[in-house]
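Work package 3, deliverable 3.1, input record:
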Amino acid sequence: MAQMPGTKHMTATPATRVLGAVALVAVLLMVLLGLVVSPADVVQGQAVRMLYLHVPSIWIAYGAFVLTSLSSALFLIRSRRRHDGGRHYDRLAGSAAEVGVVFTGITLATGMLWGRVTWGTYWQWDARLTTTVLLFVTYLGYLALRRLPADPMTRGRRTAVMALVSFVNVPIVHYSVDWWRTLHQKASLSVGRRPEITGEMYWTLLYSTLAVTIVASWLIVHRYRVIRLEELRDEEALEALIASRLKEDDVQA
Amino acid sequence: MSTVVNFHKVVAVAGGFPVLAGLDIEIAKGEIVHLRGSNGAGKTSFMRVCAGLIPISDGDANVLGFDMRDDRRSPRRHIGLLGHDNHLYKDLWVQEHVEFRAAATGAEAGDAGAALRRVGLSDRLWSVPIERLSAGQRRRVAIASMLVGRPQLWLLDEPHAALDHEGRGLLDEILVEAASSGATVVFASHERDLSKSVATRVVTLRGGRLMEDSGAA
Amino acid sequence: MLREALLIARKDLRVEWRSKVTLGHVAPLALLILVVFAFAFDANARLLELGAGGLYWVAVLFGGTLLIQRAFDVETEDGNFDAFRMSAIGAPSLFLGKSLGVFFQVVLLELVLVPGVVLLYNVRIENWVLLLAAAVGGTLAFSVCGVLWGAMAAGLRVRATLLPLLLVPVLAPVLLAGSRAFETALGVRAEAGWTWTSLMFVIAAVHTAIGLGTFGFLLEEG
């Protein structure tokens, strides 16, 4: 990666500085559109504005999850061919997962606040919320597994398998929970939640998704680089150890 | 005489530490090698690398004709590894455990009995749960489990520890028998008086490298 | 591969037979959980009857997680994992063998729990076939998922706390399906018990396929 002088241990590069500036502007615009320009909803009033953060967040969370799973698969394939191969996929999987968990958390938080305002309760056992909670906990488990000390390839393999198995599991969870709630549908509480999205609201939502995607990308790039720096630090320490081992024998021999 | 183990400037990393830092060694078939060295010298790591349990990060290593950089899994079925632990299923009876190990390596169940007799465990003990055995008896069961697999390369870490005088004698006999029937034996031991009785060669490791070598037989 | 898997399963069951952990420790604990639920629900007979299907599976989850923990402890203590990796037995065989072993141990557990639920919560079994099918399906799914995820946490120092965290989100659909299927079998609900049961079999099949493919990766070190 291109480095600016004097920035060996920073994760910024000219490209990401631009990306960061774009992200900042995009978010400001999103706030403007979301809070001021776009219209209030007929049924929900101002509360509908929560939509612009809630929906993009969950899309990003799912996207990050897909990215983690894809990277994990590529890592496993690469690690077969070369002893130390595919490490960059492992790093990407970890970065994407962290960003994913943050946005899943945002989804849950905004969902609960929105629910409080529109339904009167923080929680409903509807399919979406329940699946999201399970996704959140799954992510947390993945990150917990990543944090455990182990040789990088072993840890990478273990978490990669977990990501892939989880990926296959999510549709199962989604289907089960969805069917479960459909069978128990009482008064259509969820109907009152989904406002009609047309015109300005539609475009604002689309734009918000773009803005959030830019922010998420910026976060993933930087997290990836931090991981890379951590690994570099470990590698340098290891090389120093090897060098000192070789030297100690020469001195004593 | 074919070469069973061939290491050239091998560097191996485990747990973030370079356990082998440029090891060169060549072991021929039929040798009985006594590995010496203080703790941390690399004796256990060397054996684990031979067994393919630790990957190599630098250098070349060839074990039983397999290049350990490409394929460290295939040689394992021909190798017997006995570590500090005994690798025993403590809840099982002695006989059940050895029979399982026999079946797992493709041997006959009857071989279990022969192996147990060879290590001097009387059949009174065969129906005893392993957890009730003494440390020395457990070690013998561990050796029997290894014997039953008929490995081509024996890797033993402090095998004589916990054995009584009779047990050590038996183990030495078993090692000599193994070597003369075509296997190769490498054992690590702190004990000095052993090298005179059984080993054909004494190798000293330090700092993950070879320090002294009494030479091939 | 099947022969090797059976070999491992037989060994695990023999370990169980000698140590009697399932019948001696885990089953009584699970029964105790059923009793504790009664405390939690203030012995409200109607609530317990309605909730029996779900409470049963929670007890299975609790006891089963302990059994999976134990299944891997047996393989990782005394350096047994090294011995396993040195043997000629392939990773898929270990996966199948361990799953079979856990399956039979959980079945033992359930043989105690079903009478427990019937007696303590005063429910009647309306549909024996459905109950049996649901129990088998759920146990299969539980065993296969449990072994796969157990391997991910195996050998780690914090595994006792990590395994439930990893396992429960995965088993949520099984818990869901099992509870609903049992409720139908117990006559508490008139719902699609058979559909829920088939879902559990599907989950078991999917995880078996994944396990066979990925277990090798989980066993490698370094």
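The CA atoms of residues 42 and 200 of chain C lie 32 Å apart.
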